[in-house]
Each structure stands twice: as structure tokens, then as C-alpha cells.
Design goal:
Blueprint lengths: L1 H9 L4 H8 L3 H8 L7 H14 L17 E6 L4 H17 L3 E6 L6 H10 L4 E4 L7 H9 L4 E4 L9 E4 L2 H14 L5 E4 L6 H16 L9 E2 L5 H12 L7 E4 L2 H13 L9 E3 L16 E3 L2 H20 L8 E3 L3 E3 L18
Parallel strand pairs: 1-2, 1-3, 3-4, 4-5, 5-11, 6-7, 6-8, 8-9
Antiparallel strand pairs: 10-12
Helix pairs in contact: 2-3, 2-4, 4-5, 5-12, 6-7, 8-9, 10-11
Length: 357
Amino acid sequence: MEKKASRRQKKAPTISDVAERAGVSAMTVSRVINGEGNVRPATRDAVVAAIAELNYAPNPAAQSLAGASQVRIGLLFSNPSAAYLSEFLMGGLDQARLGNVQLVVEKCEPDDHEADVARALVANGVNGLILPPPLCDNRAVIEALLETDTPAVAVATGEVANGVSAVSIDDYQAAHAMTLHIAQLGHRRIGFILGNPNQTVSARRFAGYRDALAAIGLPFAEELVVPGLFTYKSGLDAAERLLDLAEPPTAIFASNDDMAAATVAVAHRRALDVPSDLTVCGFDDTALATAIWPELTTIRQPIGDMSRAAIDMLLEMVRRHRSGETDQHRQMLLDFTLVRRQSDAAPRKRPAVPISL
């Protein structure tokens, strides 16, 4: 941590540094930061990745802001899903620009003294922090922010911690709706890949799956539920376990798109057709959902909108905090959407007696 801090003190990264890292022009970086639409998705992703790697803090209003009036918001991230992170950062950068806020992006490796990184950001003048998953559920980070009386907004948490505000969707209802959708297609053995047990949304999504089965009279089978970590690799392992069963599922619902994409890859490797032989559904609707074949049926979580809402919410909290007003912690629920694409279908053999939903 000390070496990283000293490098920032010597020379803060510039827009030219970002452009060089991404292999594009400074004008292209500017277009990405300003949310302009005439940038190819692959180029945008490269710029976003460079911003994250360099901890670049774009501040279009720096010259017009002065002293105490300037608001600096930190975005601390540690997410293995590049697709999720790209959408989240783009939403945050866009909203920070509109709100004349300086957004400081800081990467934090898992189990790498996350609380110390959060304290360092506060010590360096950050007025509040955005915590996307999995840091939204990191107790050490949240306690560090409470100790320093720093406003914080957790994004996509399934259980809001005391002392912070939150932006999320109803993960329970979303998973419930997807499970019912799969059952309506005629599937009776529906496999489920759990998310990271350290993230509270994992339990919410599993509860939605299990309660949906109970609601339509399908038995819960423990062998159809396997662990995952929200990573592509964990999805490969989970899909292998499910498809190795003596009676494998005809449908698999993964707790995020990364693991669902891995499940499709395993099915292809086994010469199984998706969706004729196996229905596969995901969660999040990241760019990955439409980058594979077949495109995924999934739950659309408005990741960019959640990031934008978190910026607005935190900006309001910081301004209220500066004026000496009492903090009013809020929880905002945004809508989810079940998006049907090409990865789901009725099973080859329909049951004799359909279930009434």
C-alpha cells in the first residue's frame, strides 16, 4: 500500500496515461468519460479497464471547484467480473461528470487489507465511498468508514448494514420469477448454481429459487444445488457436477451471467445443444450475456443505473454531512427485468401432467 501511495504522490495519472495504456487517443478517452455514444464497446471497455488499472480520477470540474466546495467520491472495487465492472464504472463516471464530482477509482484485491485501503482513501480527502459487490458486504470496510464518520453507499447488497445507504434490486423476487419462468417451460429438474457465500445477495437468490419450487409443488433436491463463487471458473466446476449426476437437470439457473456462460461452454463441450438439450439462464444481464452463443436468458439488473443512483445518493449525503444535518440512511430498490433470449426452451420430453402456475 505504501508504495502505491508514493507513486500517486509523485505523479497522478493523466488522461494521456490512460490513452497510452488503452492504446487509443486522448480524445477517445474524453469521449468515454463524457458518456458520448460514438465509441465502440470494445474500445470503451479498454478505456474503462485502463482507468481502473491506473486509478485515474477524471475531474472535469476541477478548475471551477474550490476548497471545501469540491466533492470527491471514492469508488472502491474488487470484482472478478470484468463485464459487471465495466458497466458499473461507466455509470459512475457518467453521473460524476453530470454532478461535477471528482470520482476517485481505487482497485482493491480480495483479502488485501480492504479496510486499510478504505481508510487511506478517506485520509487522502475522499468525502464518501461507493461500495459495489463484493465490498458492499465487507464488514471490515464498513466498520472503517463508520469509525471515520464517512458517508457510504453499498450497491447490490442483499442485507443493508447499519450506518450505510444502499441501492439494489429485489434479488429474491428476481430469482423467484426466473425459477417460475423455467418451470413454465416444462422443466421439473432445475439445477441451481449458488453465488459467493460471502455476498448477501447469494442467499437471497437461492431463497427465491427454493421458494418458487415450493410454490408450484416441485420437490427440492439437494443434489441439484451446487456451490459457485460468481466467477467463470467456478461456473465450469459447478456445471460439470450437475451434468455428471445420474439424472442431470434439464435446466440450470446460475446466480450470475459469468457462471451461466461457463455452463453453456460445458454443455457445448459435452455435445449438448443449448437450449434443446439443456436450458441455461443467468442473472445480471452484463455484456457477456449477449457476447456468447446462444445469447442468455437472464435477469437484467440495471447496473449502470444503480451506479448512477449511488453517486447521486452519496452526493446528497456528503452535502448534508457538511452542513451538519443528521444522516438519513436510505435504501433504494430499482426494478429488474426478466430478459428472454435464445438459451431457454421446453425440455425434449414434457411431463404428462403440466403444473398449473
